[in-house]
Design brief:
The complex is a heterodimer.
Chain A lengths: L18 H27 L6 H22 L7 H20 L8 H21 L5 H4 L1 H13 L14 E3 L2 E3 L1 H26 L3 E2 L2 E2 L3 H20 L3 H19 L2 H21 L1 H11 L3 H4 L6 H12 L23 H34 L3 H25 L17 H22 L22 H4 L5
Antiparallel strand pairs in A: 1-2, 3-4
Chain B lengths: L1 H28 L1 H5 L6 H6 L7 E3 L2 E2 L1 E5 L6 E5 L2 H8 L2 E2 L3 E2 L1 H5 L1 H4 L10 H7 L7 E4 L3 H11 L4 E6 L6 E7 L12 H12 L8 H4 L9 H11 L15 E2 L6 E2 L11 H7 L2 H11 L1 H11 L23 H7 L10 H12 L3 E3 L4 E5 L5 E4 L4 E4 L3 H17 L11 E9 L10 E9 L8 E7 L11 H20 L1
Classes of the chains: A mainly alpha, B alpha+beta.
């Protein structure tokens, strides 16, 4: 099961590692990004951008280094994860570069490229240095302590655009809350893995809900409440929603209790109603969501959400083409929160669907690694990390398309934002690591890269055993 | 745990489906209504993305287009802005368009179907061709003569070609430079506010959008009605009109400023501008006859377009006889645009046949190929040809021996009629000075130009205002320019 016992494997058994597939997909991802970059230049000035070779070479070099790290340190990792990340990051750079052309005073693409490089560096570092994800389990409490410190520190820094979620030092600013996502997922996974039986089978039973004892449930609820409380103080509602969803999903997966989902949904609905009704900042966003054209009717011009909807509508089925849309009309946050509108306008529903499917594939691959793993911590970690991506994409994409009220969050890889890019690269690195473990053949196992879940090591299904302890 | 992970994954799939369905809703099903939302600037940006076509006077464009490199790329520029503002109007990124810029907007911005090589297909795809040009009927020399004649005084001047209805000059004074409204930003909003607040109302197109009491200039209409109706058979025969004349059904007397109006003939009444004779003739023609005659000249037509809309000139349809008497000399509720009065002169000059006034000669595409030509349509038969000949003679007499001598041009046959219109409460306002006229080169068979000038000069002394004194010299300058250009 572990890497050390793999040495006992018969040498003649060759297992598919799919590194060649990964390399060709990476080549495709880089080519698509360079093509997009060229398309923007041709559309805007009728000429190929002068730095297109630099961009292509840079992206290619980063991809190659990341690929080499995976090839030598995580040879059995899922071959789809890295190419998807490179493609999304490359597309994000194209979109930011394209929006930079409209805002000469606010250039972001170069900074984003620097942060992306840093993100890939972190990716390589994690893949190379972290030989086994289970090591993280030991640092659960250190993780949560760091997460809380990171989240609390921005309170002492001035607010930016109404939210106190940034730390500014020198010319750089970053959002510690982004990093806290990973640390919190690690802590949840470790704690729930260690205590899941106690959570599932002890304590009093109220109606259909098996309520765990306070001693077991207490710490994790406390951590979660502190996190969300801090975020509400900082007005980072998107992230607090994300943490809430993450907590509920991981609790459900760990305990198998559907009741948790119900409780979670009830709490979320109640919380959303209370916050939406009484917190003015949120209240206005809910109002805006319910009637995005109210400001137009009031003669105050279109709201950001209305502008975003206009942009999506202008894209239609096939889009206006890269560089030919007017999503810059959205104004503030067009490169960060609303970058998806540019994708929607210039790539159309077809391109937007492709982007959504890329995210879906990334999430699905994370879940698949979770299914294939046998240690509960690894499973919970994989599910947690994949869920972070899924929830984040849903909350921000749902927000800018008017499906749910808008909460400021960064579209993973696409949006301008250094901490976000770095964090997402670390998430992908961790998924690479767990997928490598999940797909590494175990001794005596038949050839094949799909590893069937091994039930005997897992907890007995609580649904079938009727809540009996082990 | 396996089952829970699968369920969590299914939940994520559900979120994905929700996103896709919602995106399809916005991008496909609600797209057109969102595109057409007036707050959506994309249509505006597309509109200004290309240079606007030009408005031409003769061969010279009087407009231009400048690429500012801003979001709304092309801004309108104007050459001789104030001179041609009553013709072109403005094309503002902030305030929209007016006059020709408005009436021919689809040509100028390239969406007109006549510009598309495949019109039906163009309508379907809503494609945009390079902007077409609008060639006006205006003659630069005539326009300039009228503009300089008014010299910034409040008023208007219109010159028509009687044979075609082509508008040779359309001047409103004081004017403004439409370029001040072209772009966006505080300078434009400031200019807009200033122009709208100005007491002289420079953006008012007095030539086609302002009506004035026509005063004695209207007597031409009354004379035409009397001759056509047979009330007067011999213009030189004495009429049985006392001076002063007691308005029918009242004890109010209508005086004459001119002498010799007692039982004066129609010709004499026109020459020296007798109120009494014309008021009496109007009553003799009767309300129905007068209404019909005025209507044949274009009064009470609220659908006249040149192609910009022209304000309705009014002749009341329900009046007592004393009101009819006053209306017959262009007072009471009778009002007319300067264009309307130019049409009156034009009808006389053209032998009674009134051509439809028009400002656009032809539409060309971006490369200058004509894609549409405006016809010279008959508008109405304003009077009998014999009536027109008699009126021509009477109007010539006005210029040669009557109130309009200052409009005379050496060696040219000129006919005219003065007007000094009372207005204001109890007629206390400074009167409007009118002059309508036409001119005919000796060598040609038909008059070449018909003109109407109105001057509302609040600064002048009340007693000094007269159609013959204030308006006739301007009309003469305009006619000279028109005749000079014809040679």
């Amino acid at each position: 099961m572990t890497a050390t016992t793999a040495d006992a494997r018969p040498p003649e058994l060759r297992l598919p590692k799919r590194r060649g597939v990964e390399l060709s997909l990476l080549t495709g991802a880089v080519i698509i990004s360079v093509y997009g970059y060229t398309a923007v230049g041709l559309a805007r000035s009728g000429a190929v951008p002068p730095d297109v070779l630099g961009y292509g070479a840079g992206l290619g070099l980063l991809s190659l280094l990341a690929h080499l790290a995976v090839r030598f340190r995580a040879p059995y990792a899922d071959p789809l994860l890295l190419p998807i990340a490179v493609l999304l990051n490359g597309l994000g750079l194209v979109l930011i570069y394209r929006l930079d052309l409209e805002t000469p005073k606010d250039q972001a693409a170069t900074t984003q490229l620097v942060w992306s490089t840093l993100g890939v560096a972190f990716f390589i570092a994690v893949v190379v240095l972290l030989r086994d994800h289970r090591v993280l389990q030991r640092y659960a409490y250190l993780s949560v302590a760091t997460a809380l410190v990171l989240m609390i520190v921005p309170i002492f820094f001035p607010a930016v655009n109404g939210a106190k979620i940034w730390i500014r030092a020198g010319g750089l600013s970053f959002q510690p809350g982004e990093f806290a996502k990973i640390l919190l997922a690690v802590f949840f996974a470790a704690y729930l893995a260690a205590n899941r039986n106690a959570l599932a089978y002890t304590g009093r039973r109220i109606w259909k809900l098996q309520l765990p004892t306070g001693r077991v449930l207490g710490p994790i609820v406390a951590i979660w409440l502190i996190s969300v409380g801090v975020l509400v103080l900082e007005r980072d509602l998107g992230t607090s929603l994300l943490f809430f969803g993450l907590f509920v999903i991981m609790l459900y997966v760990a305990t198998g209790r559907t009741g948790w989902i119900a409780v979670g949904l009830l709490l979320a609905a109640a919380g959303a109603f209370v916050v939406g009704s009484f917190e003015p900042h949120v209240h206005s966003r809910v109002e805006d969501w319910l009637n995005p054209f109210a400001t137009i009717e009031a003669g105050q011009g279109p709201s950001q959400l209305a502008q975003s909807l206009f942009a999506f509508a202008a894209g239609g089925m096939l889009g206006t083409g890269l560089g030919l849309g007017h999503s810059v009309l959205i104004g503030f946050a067009a490169k960060s929160d609303f970058i998806l509108a540019t994708a929607g306008e210039e790539l159309g529903l077809a391109g937007l669907t492709a982007v959504f499917l890329l995210y879906a594939l990334l999430v699905a691959r994370g879940y698949r690694a979770g299914l294939a793993l046998r240690d509960p911590f690894g499973r919970l970690l994989a599910v947690g990390l994949a869920s972070i991506l899924a929830l984040q994409v849903f909350v921000i994409a749902g927000g800018v398309t008017g499906l749910i009220p808008l909460t400021g969050m960064a579209m993973p890889f696409l949006a301008q934002g250094g901490s976000s890019v770095v964090t997402n690269w670390i998430i992908v690195a961790l998924l690479i690591r767990v997928s490598d473990v999940a797909r590494t053949p175990r001794p005596g196992q038949a050839e094949g890269d799909v590893i069937a879940p091994v039930v005997e090591e897992d907890a007995p299904d609580p649904g079938r055993l009727g809540g009996a302890g082990r | 745990m396996i089952r829970c992970i699968r369920r969590a994954a299914a939940f994520c799939l559900l979120l994905l489906v929700a996103l896709l369905v919602n995106a399809a809703r916005i991008q496909l099903f609600e797209a057109s209504s969102l595109d057409d939302n007036p707050a959506n600037r994309r249509n505006t940006i597309a509109r200004y993305d290309q240079a606007r076509g030009d408005i031409l006077v003769g061969d010279e464009p009087v407009t231009g287009s400048e690429d500012t490199g801003e979001q709304l790329a092309h801004e309108r520029t104007y050459r001789h802005g104030p001179l041609y503002a009553p013709v072109t109007g403005y094309a503002s990124q902030t305030y929209g368009t007016s006059l020709l810029e408005n009436a021919e907007d689809d040509v100028l911005n390239g969406t007109a179907s006549v510009l598309a090589p495949l019109p039906l297909w163009g309508d379907i795809t809503r494609s945009r061709q390079p902007g077409g040009n609008v060639v006006t009927t205006v003659k630069a020399s005539v326009q300039r003569a009228a503009y300089e004649g008014l010299a910034g005084r409040r008023g208007a001047a219109v010159a028509l070609d009687p044979a075609t209805g082509a508008i040779l000059a359309l001047v409103s004074s004081p004017s403004y430079d439409p370029q001040r409204l072209s772009g966006t930003g505080p300078s434009v909003t400031g200019a807009w506010a200033e122009l709208n607040a100005a007491a002289s109302r420079p953006m008012l197109n007095r030539a086609i959008r302002q009506t004035y009491p026509p005063g004695s200039a209207f007597k031409i209409v009354t004379a035409a009605a009397a001759l056509d109706a047979g009330v007067v058979t011999d213009p030189d025969a004495a009429t049985d009109t006392p001076s002063p004349y007691v308005l029918p059904g009242t004890t109010t007397t209508l005086p004459d400023e001119a002498r010799g109006c007692e039982e004066a003939s129609l010709a004499e009444a026109i020459r020296v501008s007798c109120n009494t004779v014309m008021a009496h003739l109007g009553v003799q023609v009767g309300l129905d006859g007068m209404l019909e005659a005025a209507g044949r000249f274009g009064f009470n037509d609220d659908g006249l377009r040149i192609p910009s809309g022209v304000s309705r000139s009014n002749f009341d349809s329900d009046m007592s006889d004393d009101q009819l008497a006053q209306s017959s000399i262009g007072q009471f509720d009778t009002t007319a645009t300067p264009l309307q009065m130019a049409m009156v002169a034009s009808a006389v000059a053209n032998g009674g046949e009134l051509r439809r006034p028009h400002l656009v000669d032809r539409i060309t595409d971006h490369d200058g190929r004509t894609v549409r030509r405006e016809g010279s349509d008959e508008y109405r038969e304003a009077m009998e040809p014999s009536t027109a000949r008699q009126l021509q003679r009477m109007m010539v007499d006005v210029v040669e021996n009557g109130t309009g001598t200052r409009a005379a041009i050496d060696g040219v046959r000129v006919g005219g009629k003065t007007g000094t219109a009372q207005h204001g409460v109890d007629n206390t306002g400074t009167p409007y000075a009118w002059f309508i006229s036409w001119a005919q080169d000796p060598g040609s068979g038909d008059p070449a130009v018909a003109v109407a000038v109105v001057v509302e000069d609040a600064a002048a002394k009340r007693a000094d205002v007269s159609g013959g004194g204030n308006a006739a010299p301007i009309a003469r300058a305009v006619m000279e320019a028109a005749l000079g250009g014809a040679e």
